[in-house]
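User: Need the bound-state model for zinc ion:
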Amino acid sequence: MDPIERLSRLFEKFPGIGPRQAQRFVQFLLRSSPSARRELIDAIQHLGGSVRECPECLRHHAGSKKVCALCSDAGRDVHLLAVVANDADLSALEKSGTYHGRYFVLGGTLHLGSEQATGLHLRELLRSVPARLDAGLEELILAFPANPEGDATAARLHAEIQRGFPALKVTMLGRGLSTGSELEYADHETLKSAFENRR
Ligand SMILES: [Zn+2]
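Assistant: Bound-state model below.
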């Protein structure tokens, strides 16, 4: 296959990237210097070797230890656990500087019209709750995007937590977030008010 076509098709597999954008990426790389392209190749290669999944929050990190820097930070509030859809949403909350508790990455949101939670770490989360309660957990915050999939995921988790751990307080982000918005694209102030207005 033609190398331009080949790379363009690879970019098209990225979330949210269509053929036109994929071609623009390829054009950009064609204009880039060989050293810039090598840096990209190198960065992709290193994803396999040095990045691992934290056994506690399930986010991907490049630390030298098994448990990530957030989970091993004794300064973080063990009373709070924010459940987020993905690593990007976790980074967005972290950058907003409003939240200092622990995290759990669910690995996505439910697909509408399907009860299947394939690929979501629902069981892992429920299994980890007893140990987290022993460590002082008091509130679980469902921090999902303000869209139907996020709402469905929050409702499902809420029901499962209430069934298994009726004493655990479960809250959701307030609707400071505009409908349909992904956490990762929300500005810091919006995230802050969504956190403060959780209920
Ligand atoms: Zn972690």
